[in-house]
Description:
The protein is of the alpha+beta class and about 180 residues long. It has helices at about 5-10, 35-45, 55-60, 65-70, 110-125, 140-145, and strands at about 25, 75-80, 85-90, 95-105, 130-135, 150-160, 160-170.
Amino acid sequence: MVSGTDALSILYGELSVVSAHSIIIRPAHPEDVDSAIQIFVQAIRKTASADYSREQVDAWAQADRQLWARRWRGCLTWLATANGKPAGFAELKPQGHIHMIFVHPSFARTGVASALLGRIEETAVEHQLATLSTDASITARPFFARHEFRVVARQEVLCRGQRLTNFRMEKFIGTQSG
């Protein structure tokens, strides 16, 4: 029998090659919570660990499945698949706050995060939101900056006894009247 961790290692293997045409963004379903949590934990442990201490990563890379399932009922959530595998996810709160965008390290720099953000921006326009905001990690800040988000404030947040730096960022979306 293969454990969940072993299954993920087998599933993801080495760094994947992905074309923009193989990335599929779809609404997330309740049964996707476990995949999202695995992506979240791996992204923090392997990607964000370049910008945060081991103690900070250990504090941050934890997830309560029940809490996630409840939170998903209150936001728009998407799952990205690439080459048929869960590759990333995003959460958008109704007020236009991007709560999370995380990509599995095997799919880093393959367009998955940009595709997720593109879907969020389309949704923002459909819902006539004027701005999008996020609390970007040190790791995610350059990604959001490349997508025309600007830093509004540097923040220190407490996570399980560890202080983590992040950045409140915003992007003007505007609305177009037809």
